[in-house]
Amino acid sequence: MKYILISLLLLFSSCSIKNYEHTQSKNVTFKTKKVKFSDIGYLRNTGNAVELELFVAGNSAFKVSIDRHICTEDGCMSKMQFNKEYLSATYPENILQNIFLGKSIYDGINIARNDNGFEQNIDTQQVKIHYSVDKNQIYFKDSKNNILIKIKEINHAK
User: Among positive and negative, which fits the CA dihedral 73, 59, 29, 45?
Assistant: First the structure.
C-alpha cells in the first residue's frame, strides 16, 4: 500500500502546477488529427518544462504541459502515448517539447544552421518534415502526417 501511494504521488506531481520563469504571447497554429487551432496562445517555460495554452475568444481552448510526461485536459500520459494519440507514433518522444523550445529534432539530423537559426528537412517512409527555427518563428510541417505547428512572435504575425 505504501508503494502505491508513493507511485501515485510521483505520477500526479509530474503534472502539478508549475511556476514558469518565461511567459510569452504568441500567434499559434496547431493542426493535428485531434486539434485544429490558429489564434493567440501563451508559451511558458522553465528549463525544459514547457506549457502551451491556446485561447479562443478569451477562453482557454487547449492546454498542453510537458515535463517528464505530457498533460492535457484529458490527463497525463507518456510522451510516446501523446505522440501516438495527437501526432504520429513514429516521432521521437521529445519532439513536441523540442519544437516548443525551438530545439533541433531527430537528434539534429540534416540540420543546416544559418544567421537567424536553423532548418531541418527529414524525409523518410513515415515522415516528410520541414522544420525551421529563427528569432521570430518556429515552423514545423509534416506533410505525410498532415501536422502543422507554427509559433510566431506577435509583432511578426502579419
Answer: negative
